[in-house]
Amino acid sequence: MTVSWMPDWVTHPGTSFTLRSGAHEWHGERPADWDGIGAGLRAAHERLRELPVRHVVAAFDEVADRWAKRDFAPRRAVVRDASLVTGMSEETVDRALDAEVGNLRAESLLAALTRELGDPEVLDGFRGGTTAVGPGTTLAVFSGNVPGLPARSLVRALLVKSSLIAKVPAKEPHFTAAFLRTLHEVEPVLADAVVATYWDRDDEAALTAALAHADAVVVYGGDEACAAVRARVQPHQLYEEHAHKFSFGLVSAEYATRHGPAEVARRIAADSSDFDQHACLSPQVYLVQAAHARAVARHLADAMRRAAVDCPPGTVEAHDAIALQHRRLVAEWRSATSDTSEVWAPDGLEWTVLLDDSLLPLTGAGDRVARIVPVPDLAAAVDLVRPYARHLQNVGLGAVGEELRRVGRELAVLGASRICAPGAMTKPSMSWRHDGQPRIAGLVRWADVELHPELEAD
């Protein structure tokens, strides 16, 4: 099935493309007449503006209801194909979709709209003298480390009644078009406001053509990929970026005492196993107060083993397998010469637990490598991660009482945009201000009526 989505109003022939993963390949269509696409999206935007925002929310709720069912045929096809491309097990992909689709229910969307806009219906017209207007067309460039991730920005754009050009991720190209096909069944006006396609990173012509019709630009990817797009954004275009991020966890002695090392380990295992630890929200390391670090690490080995049985890990690519095996050997050598280092691992590469005496190296995270580093206290832990503040995103903070508030504030000042309990690192809500900025309100332009006698009479 095609991995692109073209509305019915696209009548001109496009250019075909093929994406491959091993022996498997998938096909799609890329626009040839970008001026025609731009004109069609502007017309679609005008039709979209006529939909009340609560009608848009209800449509997404219906789509989410269908996609929440694991036996839904389009979902099963996406899970199968995403597993082939990403190497993740089907259960891992299913859990990723459970998390993403769960955020698209009406209650979640209305909560996010209310938090960022105050009154969702400012998107429909003037409310109390103010209204919010979304971009005519948004260009979204997606990456594919987490199946289902494009849903967030796609939905945000359509909530503010912006048409959309979506570049699907090569590493997981299937979800976007399949989701849009369901959306078309529920509310064609929404789906017909989106063109989803793909072009290579070095295809300057396609990027230039898409940018020419965008009022807002949303980019996911590594630092270099984001910088390449950012350099071409014009002053009149809104710009939102989700580049390389670093996440970690902290556990205080009081938190470990209150919950016990086995429960703390279970929560860390969940954070380190979800998405096979390939999401930006996944922890690269957990810094645990020294008195409890070894006990947590020992229990963590059992917890990681159970997590691998409950949700099997995916395949590890050859170069990643070599790097992981080398890292295990280095860690085992260090543990032989240090009383504060230890390694727990099965014969295979399903998971690895490292008790390290140093934060470095930070390379090699992913593929369910759970690292525990002892620290004297949480203040020392915050100082350890200070050099990485520019990329800091998500922190699993195991602390209680006043220490939770104090350390949470320090982490926020340092650069963290999300702080949650251990075990919840990979489960962000739609209300989270992604990477520290309002992602719905950030797309709109406000207009206020003031000093007007007609309004004052109301």
From TrEMBL:
It catalyses: a long-chain fatty aldehyde + NADP(+) + CoA = a long-chain fatty acyl-CoA + NADPH + H(+). It is an enzyme of class 1 (oxidoreductase). It holds the Pfam family LuxC. It comes from the Bacteria. The keyword NADP applies. Keywords: Luminescence, NADP, Oxidoreductase. Its EC number is 1.2.1.50. Pathway: Lipid metabolism; fatty acid reduction for biolumincescence. Belongs to the LuxC family. LuxC is the fatty acid reductase enzyme responsible for synthesis of the aldehyde substrate for the luminescent reaction catalyzed by luciferase. This is Acyl-CoA reductase. It comes from Saccharothrix lopnurensis. The lineage of its organism: Bacteria, Bacillati, Actinomycetota, Actinomycetes, Pseudonocardiales.
